[in-house]
Structure formats: C-alpha cells, structure tokens
Write a structure and sequence with these properties.
The protein is mainly β. It contains two helices and 20 strands. The protein has a single domain, classed as Jelly Rolls, CATH 2.60.120.
Length: 289
C-alpha cells in the first residue's frame, strides 16, 4: 500500500492585507516576523497538479507546482498564510474545464507525479483527509454565500473504456462532491438511473444521476473543520470532524467499481457572476492508498 503525506511551504505576494517578506506571509507587525511565529501548512504538493481559473484553463503539475511561492502565474491563486499555517486557494469566475461552467483553483491527485494516466479503483481503496476552513466568499443576489466544492472523488474512464463507448475524452462523473454550503458541509453522490444497468452501459455519464444529497447537522461556519473520505470496494464513507460519518454502500457503489478514480481538493466556486470569488484555506492534507 503506497502512502503519500503532503506538506510544503511558500507564499503569496499580497492578499487580504498580508504581504510577502523573505518567502513568508506576515501581517506587518514586528512580533509576527519572528521565526517562532511562522506557521507552515502541512501539504506536500509532489503528487498534485493544480487547475487555475485562467487560460484554457491553466494547469500546473509537479515539479513546477512546488515553486508556487515564486511562480508568477500561481501565486495570485495559491499562496501561504504563515500566520494561520494554511495554504490559501483563491478563485473567481474565469476559465473552466470542458465539462463544467464553473471555475476553480483545485488540486488533482496524481499517483505518478506529472501524469493523469495512473489512477485507482475502489478495489484498490483510498483515503483523503484534510483540515480546512472557508475564509470568505461572495454572496448571491439573495445574500446567501456562494457554495464551494472543497473535496471530491472524481471518476475516470480508462483509454479502453473511452474507446469502447466512443467518448472523446476520459471524463466520468464525480462519485463524491463535498460542499461548503452556507456554513454547513453537504455531500452529493451519484446513483444509477437504471439500477439494472450493466457494463458497458454504466460507463456513460448520462447513466448516472445526482442523489438527493446529505447535509451534516453540525454548523462549521467560517471555522476550521476536518473532512475524511474513505473509499473501498463497494463502500464509501465521509466523516466530519472525526465524529459524524455518512456512509454509502449497495448497488450503486458496487457498480461504481468499474471506474478509475482520483481525489481532488481545493476551491471549486459554484458561481459565475463577474464579481463572485471565494478564498479557502487548507491547513493539512494527506492521502493514503
């Protein structure tokens, strides 16, 4: 079983009243610049690439992502808050991926650094765990904060499956989306429209529909919280703050086993208004297989 523990450090030139000094972000007071007051996020980016809301869109993978503190393209969207010890993900409407109308500053797991071609199945299993918090987000016309997807398990077709069903790319549905939704953590998964669907029909994206969703009762607001997703053959479980767990099993999970998967984490903003934005902080992030 391979294991990746993610931890790194760098920073942004300017954001939310902070400025860069010697590759560390401070708030400008003398005491804060002392080494003992510097906190660094526990996130190793060596097995992640990041997609940004610019370009077509723009993706930066290892090893270039490791230099995000000094990368002029990256540092606007991904930087350190060394007072809180967090990696900040900032996004706003802009470029989106071919299968979405929303923009993101979001990490995508790469089992082999630099390549999207190596992924895992539920039979292989996987665990992702992160501690994060919503820092700030814009609001819609009714005054409600915009939603943000903060973690995912995304499906992927193998090249053979893609060719079998005549699809132009390897895209498959996300089996798990974890939302920050007005201060609560909400889950959305997938269910087969036809529970009797078999291979290869269940490879088609339109064979799957959204489930009714599940919202944890605990209010997290703008405070730090922990999310863990565990996937194994025929099962998936999501735990909030190491206390509250919502589990998935049965026919949908069993049949999902035909897909490859990869983890995602970051700031996937569910808004397209020109003045929309979100700023999300991750304190730590780890993945195990």
């Amino acid at each position: 079983m391979a294991c990746f523990l993610f931890c790194t450090c760098s920073c942004e030139k300017e954001s939310n009243g902070l400025f860069q000094q010697d590759d560390v972000v401070f708030n400008g007071t003398e005491d804060d610049t002392s080494p003992q007051n510097v906190k660094l996020p526990d996130i190793d980016l060596s097995h992640w690439k990041v997609t940004l809301p610019i370009g077509n869109p723009t993706s930066i993978k290892p090893p270039e992502i490791l230099d995000y503190a000094t990368n002029d393209v990256l540092k606007t969207y991904m930087y350190n808050d060394s007072i809180e010890g967090a990696l900040v993900f900032f996004t706003k409407p802009g470029a989106s991926t071919p299968n979405s109308s929303y923009s993101r500053t979001e990490l995508r797991e790469q089992l082999v650094a630099g390549s999207d071609s190596y992924n895992w199945t539920f039979k292989d299993g996987g665990v992702i765990k992160g501690r994060l918090r919503m820092n700030e987000t814009s609001r819609d016309s009714s005054g409600k904060p915009h939603r943000v997807i903060v973690m995912q398990i995304h499906g992927r077709l193998t090249n053979e499956q893609r060719d079998l069903i005549g699809q132009k790319d390897n895209n498959a549905p996300p089996i798990m989306k974890v939302y920050w939704d007005n201060g609560y953590v909400r889950l959305k998964s997938k269910v087969l429209k036809n529970q009797d669907a078999s291979y290869p029909d269940l490879l088609h994206t339109d064979a799957w529909d959204n489930d009714s969703g599940y919202t944890f009762s605990e209010y997290v607001g703008y405070e730090p919280f922990t999310i863990e997703i565990r996937a194994s053959q025929g099962e998936m479980a999501v735990t909030l703050n190491e206390i509250h767990t919502h589990s998935y099993s049965g026919n949908n999970m069993q049949k999902w086993g035909v897909f490859e998967n990869y983890f995602k984490a970051g700031n996937y903003l569910m808004a397209t208004e020109s003045d929309a934005f979100a700023r999300l902080k991750y304190y730590n992030l780890e993945v195990n297989h």
